[in-house]
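Lab notebook page, bench 4
Experiment: in silico fold of construct C2
Operator: M.H.
Input chain length: 268 residues
Purpose: comparison with the prior construct
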Amino acid sequence: MTLVRRHLLTGYALLAFGYLLLPIAVVILFSLNDPAGRFNYVWQGFTLDNWWNWDAVPGIRDSVVTSLEIAVLATIVATTLGTLIALAIVRHRFRGRGLTNMLVFLPMSTPEIVLGASLLTLFLQSRVATGFLTIFVAHVMFVVSYIVVTVKARLIGFDRHLEEAAMDLGANEWTTFRKVTLPLLAPAILSAALLGFALSLDDFVITYFVAGSETTYPLFVWGAARVAVPPQVNVVASAIFLIAILLMVANVLWQLRGERRRAGEGRP
């Protein structure tokens, strides 16, 4: 009985985690399916042809490339802006600081359908043609909030004495930021960037409103599902998931390595 009580919470957590991963396992499994018809819903047999010919479906390659381009550009811009905004909110006192802090959370708390409709209205009123540019602007707008929150959490627990020590030793503000502040913030910035990239790559609702004639991968899947569900859709989704897992594992290992190195340098 003691053994059961000791491992009950662990077993429950593993079951819950397995339940959450079950749909992803099904997606990966059916990426290896050889369906007889247009819909990849029933297991017919094992094949690797879907992975070798992942772009056999017309339009899927262009949609993946478009999604990746937008996600990369939006992540770079949003990470830069979000990091600077987080630094301003945490490190400085200025008029409108509370309002700025509140506005950062609005895109996170507002339903995506409201954001999408509002952005479409803004673009139409401004006579901006919807397409690649409007998708990019929309993604930066809602991704930057998540970047700010992630980096801000790291800044709140940041030890300012390290910066003060560097400046006492003769470093100016820019050198201190480049050699002390930025390296210590790098894991949080990278984590925020990975989160922003995933959110941008995955977004459907806001993109649907502002896409115009452009087709991202989520829009391609939605359009294709009305007439067919080719296994290549599962292939691309599985590849994105596996790459994301590898990047997250690499980020965690990098953080652990940095912690061990700092602990070693701190030994007498």
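Observations: The mean pLDDT is 86. The two ends are 46 Å apart (CA to CA).
Next step: discuss at group meeting.
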